[in-house]
Amino acid sequence: MRGDSILFPTESGLYCPPGDFYIDPLRPVARALITHGHSDHARAGHGAVMATAETLAIMGLRMGPDFAASTQVAAEPVRIGDVTVSFHPAGHVLGSAQIAVMPDKGPKIVVSGDYARAPNPTCAPFQPVPCDIFVTEATFGLPVFRFPDPQAEIRRLLASMADFPDRPHLIGAYALGKAQHLIGLVRECGYDAPVAIHGALRPLCDFYAASGIGLGALIPATAEEVPAQLIIAPPSAFSTPWVQRFRDPVIGFASGWMAVRVRARQRGAELPLIISDHVDWPALTGTLRELSPAEIWVTHGAEDGVIRWCELQGMSARPLRLVGYEDEAE
To answer: Which Gene3D superfamilies match (predicted)?
Structure first.
């Protein structure tokens, strides 16, 4: 059985005919397997959804309890139709998983979803899964993306706060994953003062804390006078009147895209923090070397750059040309 008869792209997303399911489908389907809770991978309206317990809970928080007709927690390997599927940590956000698809006869395919190799205090680390075909993201799939040590970026943040003690530091970070990652890194670096968070971050921060992820003291950034120097908010809040309550703030954003100076300037970032929940170029290519699959399928991002690298390494690679996975890339 060939790989493209086990899993192939359709208008609805990656489809597995032997199991009659989709992985991270783009539109409502009868059966969906979800890698993680970001909105460009997890959507409402499916019939049956299988995901990790954390991802199911996150989908419920973000979409409401009736986001699917039925749900199933992915724990042990499960037989679906003529394939066995299993979920393995991806290191991206809490609950994120790679999905391994194993037919009785034929290649084992691992769909990585979004993944990261750098240590992250707020989620389980990436687990390398031997496979015949590896489906990799390419969000930062160009040699220019070489991210610094995340803790070094946090030390830049803390140094700025020490240099400008009278200026609030407003940092933009996505509500799921990045905000908690940023807080976790700050705590690892010894900052134990209260961190103020925008109200949109509260439900997911509370969920992380209830899941055993230590985020320390978090206070609301809703009062006229916020008694905290570090304030974290979703990027969308920076274009609303909410931001005007802070006098002479230091504006920053935490994202792998802050490595692109034009993007940092477009955001008006005085303090761009290059902190990503995705693999950069060395981590991506290092993962491909480590797994050394017979085939590499590349999706959502700089597909051509990764495929060219694979060709130079003598690795077989092809693009999936899926669309719709950029809404919440960082």
So the answer is: Ribonuclease Z/Hydroxyacylglutathione hydrolase-like
Give, for 210, the enclosing helix (H) or strand (E).
helix 202-210
Distance CA 108, CA 32 (A): 19
In DSSP terms, which residues pair with 218 in a beta bridge? 195
Q: Where are the domains of the chain?
A: 3-144+278-319, 150-273
Rounded Cα gap, residues 236 and 239, in angstroms: 6
SS3 at position 226:
coil
* Record: fold of 150-273: Rossmann fold (3.40.50)
β-strands 8-10, 13-16 pairing: antiparallel
The more confidently predicted of residues 303 and 329 is 303
Same CATH topology for 3-144+278-319 and 150-273?
no
For 128, what's the count of Cα atoms within 13 Å in the CB-facing half-sphere? 12
Say which residue the tokens 């950069």 belong to.
280
The residues with which 317 forms a beta bridge, in sequence order, are: 296
8-state DSSP, 200: G
pTM beyond 0.90: the answer is yes
Place of tokens 């042990």: 76
CATH architecture of 3-144+278-319: 4-Layer Sandwich (3.60)
Contact 52, 74 (CB under 8 A): yes
Closest CA to 139 of 113, 109, 103: 113
Three-state DSSP class for residue 303:
helix
